[in-house]
Design a protein that fits this description.
Layout: E1 2-3, E2 29-30, E3 37-38, H1 40-53, E4 56-61, E5 67-69, E6 75-79, E7 85-92, E8 98-108, E9 113-118, E10 124-129, E11 136-137, E12 146-147, E13 154-156, E14 163-164, H2 166-176, E15 180-182
């Protein structure tokens, strides 16, 4: 979705709602493929649905480093704080500016795991869906759990994003009495 600078003539958008109250933005989003307009709430829902079906997706890292958001600020995924890192040292660009790479792991509302690299909080990021084990390991001492990160080869239950590596698939089967089966579809 992209935003336009001209408000629709009849304050009712194609989604059936009125535009978000005026501020520094236009108050509505426009689908570039169809030209249909929608309020930010409906646009966020459409983007969450698109995220569910995508293997690559472009979003924004919130300035507080905890969420991936849409342009208006709608929640797309939660950043796994234990897995975020600032890779490498600061590098100097040809113009004399400093540059740093940040890598982010996130989990969407459906349990899908995502990974992306960008320049830091508050900036755009292109994510790719990971096919990694969704088993979480507890560390204790108040530290948050971490994901296994082994390549997932087995699917438990029928949820599309409940993927496990060979070792944890057996543990999930014993723990939850799920039937484990090979992954039949790829994303």
């Amino acid at each position: 979705m992209t935003t336009n600078t001209v408000i629709a003539s009849a304050n009712v958008l194609d989604c059936g709602h009125s535009a978000t109250p005026e501020g520094i933005s236009t108050g509505f989003a426009t689908d570039p493929a169809t030209g249909l307009t929608s309020c930010y709430t409906c646009s966020d829902e459409q983007q969450r649905d698109a995220l569910h079906h995508a293997s690559r997706y472009t979003a924004y890292v919130a300035c507080d480093r905890t969420t991936l958001t849409t342009w208006p600020g709608g929640h797309l995924a939660t950043i796994d704080l234990a897995d975020q890192s600032q890779t490498g040292r600061r590098a100097t660009t040809p113009t004399g500016q400093c540059s740093t790479r940040f890598s982010w792991h996130a989990t969407d509302n459906d349990g899908g795991r995502w990974f992306g690299i960008n320049g830091g909080p508050g900036l755009v990021i292109t994510l790719r869906r990971l096919r990694v084990c969704s088993w979480q390991t507890e560390f204790g001492n108040g530290r948050p759990p971490r994901y296994c990160h082994q390549r997932a080869t087995r699917q438990a239950n029928s949820a599309p994003h409940t993927l496990y590596c060979r070792h944890h698939a057996r543990m999930a089967h014993d723990l939850y009495a799920w039937t484990t089966q090979p992954i039949s579809t790829t994303r």
